[in-house]
DNA sequence: GTCACCTGCTAGTTTTTCTTGGCATGTGCA
DNA sequence: TGCACATGCCAAGAAAAACTAGCAGGTGAC
């Protein structure tokens, strides 16, 4: 329930992260219940390498989180679950966030954040 | 106030469109008041060609709309203003949208739009 | 030992998006 | 006529994101 208005850069990262069909499906699947990487890859019909890349992006954006666990038979499984994010997108919220964007394209390191 | 849940493809388009610092600033500026292209380009400090491209994307995503008008001195000015969009981003809304995604990467032409 | 299943990383290609620069059109004004 | 400002579009290069393929390590079971 982090409905606290994000900074422009965070909003940008969140939007860019969600703006991908695979990642949207990943979030959808994990919303149902948590899953481990290989399981999810099979379910979505994409390669593990690709999925890991998407999971990495989702995780750095704080939308999902992964935890390494040992299954009963001793195998290492990395389980992922969704974070309880909440972002409201309206002209006002976007305008507010835009004002805190770090200079040019987010290259410059600003005070914000 | 179109808080009606978008289809997966529409959500994807909306997210992809907003996931850009220039477009975020454009929305922010237009939220204040409407503006014509050249005016906005000067204000944001970007080239007109670039801005037009961003405006085109924003418009096809339905986030802004432009109207050609004739100024008092007979010049053609294209004024843009923001649309009153509203999108809620939470695991549930994302999951719901993901289920309506057109097959592979949205390449397939579906019924929607 | 060999197979099946789990994780993680990286180099390199392909694809998409972003940007720039130039060119064309039209109006009013000195 | 030449200048200032408006619009629109396109070709081509630059940059960023997506994806593939391959290799590494580890455990349990037959």
From TrEMBL, chains A, B:
Keyword annotations from UniProtKB, A to Z: DNA-binding, Transcription, Transcription regulation
GO MF assignments: DNA binding; DNA-binding transcription factor activity
Residue stretches making up the HTH arsR-type domain: 3-97
Domain of life: Bacteria
Protein's name according to its UniProt entry: Transcriptional regulator
Keyword Transcription regulation attached: yes
InterPro entries per UniProt: ArsR-like_HTH, HTH_ArsR_DNA-bd_dom, HTH_MetalResp_TranReg, WH-like_DNA-bd_sf, WH_DNA-bd_sf
